[in-house]
## 1
Amino acid sequence: ESESENKLDGETASDSESKSEFGGPPPVPTSDDTPEVLNRALSNLSSRWKNWWVRGILTLAMITFFFIIIYLGPMVLMTIVMCVQIKCFHEIITIGYNVYHSYDLPWFRTLSWYFLLCVNYFFYGETVTDYFFTLVQREEPLRILSKYHRFISFALYLTGFCMFVLSLVKKHYRLQFYMFGWTHVTLLIVVTQSHLIIHNLFEGMIWFIVPISCVICNDIMAYMFGFFFGRTPLIKLSPKKTWEGFIGGFFATVLFGLLLSYVMSGYRCFTCPVEFNNDTNSFTVDCEPSELFQLQEYNIPLVLQSVVGWKTVRMYPFQIHSIALSTFASLIGPFGGFFASGFKRAFKIKDFANTIPGHGGIMDRFDCQYLMATFVNVYIASFIRGPNPSKLIQQFLTLRPDQQLHIFNTLKAHLVDKGMLGSLEDA
Amino acid sequence: EVDLDERLSELDLRNDSDIPDIPPATDSTPEILKRALSGLSARWKNWWIRGILTLAMISVFFLIIYLGSFMLMLLVLSIQVKCYHEIITIGYRVYHSYDLPWFRSLSWYFLLCVNYFFYGETVADYFATFVQRREQLQFLIRYHRFISFALYLTGFCIFVLSLVKKHYRLQFYMFAWTHVTLLITVTQSHLVIQNLFEGMIWFLVPISSVICNDITAYIFGFFFGRTPLIKLSPKKTWEGFIGGFFSTVVFGFIFSYFLAQYQYFVCPVEYNSETNRFVTECEPSELFQMKKYLVPPLLQAVLGSETVNMYPFQMHSIALSTFASLIGPFGGFFASGFKRAFKIKDFADTIPGHGGIMDRFDCQYLMATFVHVYITSFIRGPNPSKLLKQLLILQPEQQLSVYKALKSHLIGKGIL
């Protein structure tokens, strides 16, 4: 007991001190992970330029990787999203262990992973049931799993909850509750957003690619504008950010979004909803492009006519939506980054982890993406897509006859009201 | 200058036994009770106070039931707000963070946002006909998720802007504390309201089963208790646990039998837009119609007859009572662990002899979620009003094609 007290007394550094706090097993994020190859190639340059080159090379590597994955298709994208989610969860939980020296708490590591599994099972089940409806109805075990899905997920979660209660140990109550809270908040952030990303993906790959690219572009553009023109600091939390970078990044991102949307809207593989083809048992992206992705003539406001020299312009309606997405990515997205910076300062860490040389952990790259994913999902649900008619019919078929009749009559009255059924009034 | 954050880091990570106790709760027993019971010894006095307050709470409960669904909804909402307040106040005390800039306002603001979101998603479905007639409400309903998200984001951005250099860690803790509390109290209270709309019996039977389990486990423990159940709650015993289980199942069984006869309890709550009131009138579903069940041979000798008339709902009540007795107490153990972790005796002093509202409701939370999941999995199909709402949002051409599909289906089944 006295050893643990001594260990805890060492952990009293306030925000203003810079003592290293960690004595626990997990790694301290300061070692140089840069691969040998890069080290040798850049051994001549000064350390400032070397850092810049490392970051630049890794950025290009990540962007290339991103394109490869897009080429490989929705299934691989889903898998990548899943891996990123697990890695982010692991990074944040590891920080929790470090902060609370709770690496050796009984059961705790197992329980964290178990809860991650439960919540993922719940969300994937809901998604799979929606999108793979016919496949699920065909296979008997899947049908039962899908019918009682919520009950099974809840039972799994409850098991974990009861295990937690039974694992409470007298001297460590507070710590265990902290880690329980920490796990749940992490799940809330990481898992829900990654499933929203997958929902966006199923809506059409363009809804996945454009938001993520806008956030990345804003990051890069704000950095460059700040590098060349930066003078006025933006916020105390992140001293390197400047107003010039912020505003320059905003305009650059809106422009980038417009151009990227224009290029992507021409291809079906990006604009069509992802569907599961029962016969070929694979994902297909083939459809009649919706109105959003058909060129339309727009009148240019008089103000811009003199500048641009045309009276009308042909654009995809989606490009208008992309302005909204880019605006959010540039103005509100950075708050996700500030939140993560505040978190790192609060817990005295430089980066979430060491996974990517020059950049930090996966979480460092994805901190701005989380708000964006939720925004895109809410945006689609509110402004773009209505409910799915075939899904509604399926739900209708499971109701009781009297409920079906009630709904049918209400719908009929509504259609008659709107004048759509007037002339068809027969038996 | 004492560094606030340094002191808090120490508090945070010290062993449990080093944390100073929160001063014991003041005695808020009303004067009148004190005078009436001044003659008795301290042990019996405590027992009497608890007993009287228990009866008072049960009477309030019956009164509210009599007043109807709307009052019940308000009651659930008030309890939710009070539980939230109690848990947040504990957070303030633990972290000495009562004076953090903006924090109190932000906590209440987040509570408002999340409630707004949930009420819009669930309760608005039931008022579909009411909403159809008013233009402004239609707008709010159509863009509901977007509006809720925008409200939440505003709070999030204000939080980020309110981060103050010396208090980062504290502010993040309180942020997380607020969100976990919201997750526990607000989501469950909305599940309770959804259960209520399914039919008051789905609200009454689970809550009563949990209360009954509490009381009977206490009584069995009092008279027969010998073997301790779990280290977390030294007063609980295995005898109380098992005795409480059997009594609760019997109680649930009998109570369901009584309630299932009245339309008032059994029918889904609906909003009648003409009279602007909640009505509970319907043709009782199959669950609430008497059926003959064959008694298994084992029990035939005991009961003396070969068949018995029961409501199918009584079978479900056995499942509900079992959960209330076996798993419900884990909610109580969780709350006990929480109180020990943060060195508090009770969540608050609101009810003399019993502690805070949260103390009474800790076991109810798991129960509410279980009942909701049970109903959606085993009892009811999709919600008709929600389906209708979605149908009405479709484009006119889509509505027409759906109409035709439905018509052919209904004609095929002979309903039309």
## 2
Amino acid sequence: MAKEPVRVLVTGAAGQIGYALVPMIARGIMLGTDQPVILHMLDIPPAAEALNGVKMELVDAAFPLLKGVVATTDVVEACTGVSVAVMVGGFPRKEGMERKDVMSKNVSIYKSQAAALEKHAAANCKVLVVANPANTNALILKEFAPSIPEKNITCLTRLDHNRALGQISERLNVQVSDVKNVIIWGNHSSTQYPDVTHATVKTPAGDKPVRELVADDAWLNTEFITTVQQRGAAIIKARKFSSALSAASSACDHIRDWVLGTPEGTWVSMGVYSDGSYNVPAGLIYSFPVTSKNGEWSIVQGLSIDEFSRKKLDLTAQELSEEKELAYSCLT
Amino acid sequence: MDYLALMEKPLVVLGCVYLSWKIIRNIWSFANIEKEPITVLVTGAAGQIGYALVPMIAKGAMLGPDQPVIIHMLDIEPAAEALNGVKMELIDAAFPLLKGIVATTDVVEACKDVDIAVMVGGFPRKEGMERKDVMAKNVSIYKVQASALEEHASPDCKVLVIANPANTNALILKEFAPSIPHKNITCLTRLDHNRALGQISEKLYVHVSDVKNVIIWGNHSSSQYPDVNHATVSTCNGQKSVRELVGDDKWLNTEFITTVQQRGAAIIKARKLSSALSAASSACDHIRDWVLGTPKGTWVSMGVYSDGSYGISPGLIYSFPVTCEKGEWSIVQGLKIDEFSREKMDSTAKELIEEKSLAYSCLN
């Protein structure tokens, strides 16, 4: 007996990340290979023809799981009945733009999309904000969609989490699938804190702490952190384009683990609504270590935070509070 | 009583054997013995199709969700930095199935021990170029890559050529890698096959997963022949013929055919870029069905070495309907070919013979 299809929205779908993401969704990578999907793709009118081209390619690929495609520039049509919303669309920073300008443009986009989602999405719609400034865009979305449960609004830091796993696996020359439980704290920006204090590597002798195996605290506290923080820029330098492939893959991981649950003994990083855990101010969208079960995430509690980490956690929280203020000033 | 005593020993032995087998199976699955990784080469990997394809391979869409892979990526020197960027992103995505990445401009390093080779790299047609010029460039590329594959790839390496002119590039590859079994050299017409399924599903308002057994005959070019004579749709009343359900032979014999033939151009017009997403997805389908087998009662289209079936000259790489089992394809035999189809099939064969001639002339 085939499952009922799930409607998945991707905004900014005519762009690079959208193009990498939609075939992954259509192949069952996001929700499982037995879960039929209907894709809703939204973009702005100047991208309408390109968006239609993506729809044509989705038809051409004859995906067995893809039970429908809606390609539209109408935000209401896009949001109607969706159970999962991946917000890739946003206003990119252009040369000469001030931070306030970028913030102001994105605040108005996320304000209007919040209203549409609140009104037309399926109940219990899960939202993942990817477009930068991801945490603050997600916060704006939450503020203007008060009837969407705050636990359903998240932002993507899984890319940074996966990047951290990758860096450790390269350093130790082990398979990335044997590394787990890094944490990305805070803002998906250069103040994020990639923390390996509780990370482990699977060895023939059981799980060993990363810090012990790397045995180079100087590297872990400096170069490792900056490499992960600045990886986005490194990709742009090499490719001349930003990271679409890895962002799309990480978005699939984020949703899949949220919906289908995290493996036993493993946590992941998600930008979620802070409840004050770990002395992070409540009311921010802040990246925490989480496990997920039965479609709900919960912050992993009780992890020890040393002095070095405390400073980093607070620094990124401070940046988020400033962004929040800047965003609100754009609204008045 | 005697009887029971006689049976006792064998029963105990049987019981022990059964229990031991169960215990061993339990330990085996508990220890989670992983399959050996399969090495997959993608040439032209820094380009659009490569970028769409490598995450699909790394996520198990090509060889199955339990099959670890090692990806080899090859491109030319000018693309080396971009290629390294793709390698960085593959690391960043932390794919559990991806057990190794090689990003290189050295064709020997790229071809070493590969089990599957997807040849996306080729010389694209630029404005002002004559057909002969494009052919000449590609012939020399595929001649070189043929030797490298023959010398360094795994003995049973399966090859899929995508770069255009796909059929003829595959033929050149075959000619210059004589020790690669000719059944292991194929070209991609699965994209056209999937496009045909898509067009039928749109016309009939059915799910594409309910349409099957279209055929793409011939060259992956505008002379290809998308044939629905044996295609069916799964309905509540069983399999029904597409011709019957569409009820519009004129459309099937004209507009449907040209739409599928020219779909590539339509995508370029809409996106301003060519079809990477659907080409990559279809490449995964081609390899997956070849390696893991086609579903019962279903065939697919693959460009394969012609053995003279259906009156097509042997010695061409021509797209036929095939089924796959145990890692080998076989042409579906005995399908009826009407006059209309005969003409189309011969026309595309003729074009392939001309391309072969042109390719050989470039070699002298």
